[in-house]
Structures are given as structure tokens and as C-alpha cells.
């Protein structure tokens, strides 16, 4: 395998490893051996090391002294902590869209995301559905126009996607639940209704958190 532009090689390696973690191909606390990644992906060791630092920043791996990198453990405490933060971040982003959209065409990216979510749900394709969910978040960034907020959310996206897979795995009906929440949130944004936005986001994140905790309890 050979990685090329537009993303840096390290970024592409980081995304590749993150996908394996998200899909459970790399297990919690499993060691990620640099030399194996170098050989498997035909990349330099320096690029792999940089990729692992990116993944550490994104809460996907822990880099331990004299032991190297291993996949982050996902505990109930981690899940609760993640969703407590994500709830407030998503409210901030949704409020920004509600406050700043002016023309209906500015909301078109969210309509397109809604269509992709629908396709993912109809085909019970968790990958398509979760990718569309991440795109919905990214579409809010221009409205927020806050590089600090964007950086925090982008670094959390792989960890969020990891929990989404846990919530949906074996429960495709959860996509319908998420789809309904998205529809309610979109309407609240159109209505410029911050209290309703907070209500919908909080309920959505709380439900997802409980689904992930239930999945962890069954392992």
C-alpha cells in the first residue's frame, strides 16, 4: 500500500490505524508495533511515529514509556467523560448555525447529510451512516468560525466514531433513533430555538452514552 497527497502521509497512516481501532480490528490495550506498520503500509518509521502522536492527541492510542503505543482502553468512565464534553460542544456548534444562517441555501450541506444518513439507515450500513454523522458536525465549523472549538471537536471525532460503532453494532435500529434526533435538531436550528437545541442534543448524547455503556457491559 502506498499513501499519497493531499493529506500528509502521517495523517493518512493515522486515519488508517484509527479505522482499524474504530472497527475493533485492533483491540483495547493491544500494542501497535511500529515496524509492522512500516512494513504493512510501505512507509517510513518517522511517519509512523508521527501518526501515533496524532492518534495520541485524538485519544485513540496511549504512548507509554519504554512500551510504545497501545490502543486506548474504553471504560465506562471514559465514555461518560467523552459524552459530557461532546454534549456541550455540539450545543455550541448547533447554536452557532442557528444564530448565523441567513439564506436557506446555506443549510444545504445539512440537507445533503440528512440524505446520506437516510441511505445509510435504509441499507443498514453503519459506516456510511457514521461517516455522514461526522460530516454533519464538520458542516457546522464555518458557522462557528472558532478554530479552537473546531480543533477540539476534530480531535474527538475518531473517539466519537468508535463509540457510535459500539452503539450501532448489533442494533441497526439505533440508526433510526439517531436519524430522528438529527431531524429534530435540524428543525430546532431552522427555528433558531436554543432551548430546544440543548434539549435535543442532551437527550441524543445521553441516549448514545447509555447504548455504549450497555455494549461495554456485555463484553
Automatic annotation (TrEMBL):
UniProt xrefs under PROSITE patterns: HTH_GNTR (PS50949)
Domain HTH gntR-type: 7-74
Protein name: Transcriptional regulator, GntR family
Superkingdom assignment: Bacteria
Membrane-crossing residue ranges in chain numbering: none
Keyword DNA-binding: yes
Matching Gene3D superfamilies: GntR ligand-binding domain-like, Winged helix-like DNA-binding domain superfamily/Winged helix DNA-binding domain
Organism: Pseudomonas kuykendallii
SUPFAM superfamilies: GntR ligand-binding domain-like (SSF48008), Winged helix' DNA-binding domain (SSF46785)
Keywords: DNA-binding, Transcription, Transcription regulation
Record keyword Coiled coil present: no
GO molecular function list: DNA binding; DNA-binding transcription factor activity
Amino acid at each position: 500500500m502506498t499513501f499519497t497527497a493531499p493529506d500528509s502521509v502521517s495523517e493518512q497512516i493515522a486515519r488508517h490505524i484509527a479505522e482499524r481501532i474504530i472497527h475493533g480490528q485492533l483491540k483495547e490495550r493491544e500494542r501497535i508495533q511500529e515496524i509492522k506498520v512500516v512494513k504493512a503500509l510501505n512507509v517510513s518509521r518517522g511517519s509512523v511515529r508521527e501518526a501515533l502522536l496524532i492518534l495520541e492527541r485524538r485519544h485513540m492510542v496511549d504512548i507509554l514509556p519504554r512500551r510504545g503505543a497501545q490502543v486506548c482502553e474504553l471504560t465506562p468512565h471514559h465514555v461518560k467523560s467523552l459524552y459530557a464534553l461532546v454534549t456541550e460542544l455540539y450545543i455550541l456548534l448547533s447554536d452557532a448555525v442557528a444564530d448565523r444562517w441567513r439564506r436557506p441555501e446555506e443549510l444545504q450541506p445539512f440537507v445533503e447529510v440528512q440524505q446520506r444518513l437516510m441511505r445509510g439507515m435504509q441499507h443498514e450500513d453503519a459506516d456510511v451512516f457514521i461517516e455522514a454523522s461526522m460530516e454533519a458536525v464538520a458542516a457546522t465549523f464555518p458557522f462557528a468560525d472558532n478554530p479552537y472549538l473546531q480543533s477540539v471537536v476534530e480531535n474527538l471525532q475518531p473517539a466519537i466514531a468508535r463509540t457510535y460503532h459500539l452503539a450501532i453494532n448489533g442494533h441497526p435500529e439505533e440508526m433510526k433513533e439517531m436519524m430522528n434526533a438529527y431531524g429534530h435538531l435540524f428543525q430546532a436550528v431552522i427555528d433558531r430555538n436554543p432551548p430546544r437545541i440543548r434539549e435535543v442534543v442532551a437527550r441524543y448524547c445521553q441516549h448514545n452514552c447509555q447504548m455504549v455503556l450497555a455494549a461495554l457491559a456485555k463484553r
